[in-house]
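[Discussion] Sanity-checking designs against the backbone

I'm trying to build intuition for which residues belong where. Below is a structure token string of 94 positions. I'd appreciate it if someone posts a full sequence so I can compare it with mine line by line.
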């Protein structure tokens, strides 16, 4: 991969642009005991973010430690794995 810095302090730091041969890539990863794999993930707005924004606009306090959906809207089953909003989809394409 492409080096991030000359010395990032984590061993061989590189951006892996992907490898068509998964076996070769796996062998490369296991060949050096001080090589770390870091995964970066792009986040976009989900419906759980939107519902919290709506509650804040209504000046409703959110108790994220509460299992009660009347105090914590994100504990509702429909927010277990919330889909992205239209804005979230746009954010992920940038």
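Best answer:
Here's mine. Compare freely.
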């Amino acid at each position: 991969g492409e080096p991030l810095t000359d010395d990032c302090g984590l061993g061989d730091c590189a951006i892996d642009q992907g490898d068509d041969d998964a076996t070769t890539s796996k062998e490369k990863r296991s060949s050096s005991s001080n090589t770390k794999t870091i995964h970066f993930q792009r986040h976009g707005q989900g419906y759980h973010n939107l519902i919290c924004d709506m509650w804040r606009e209504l000046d409703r306090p959110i108790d994220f430690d509460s299992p009660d959906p009347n105090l914590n809207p994100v504990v509702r089953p429909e927010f277990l794995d919330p889909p992205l909003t239209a804005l979230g989809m746009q954010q992920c394409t940038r």
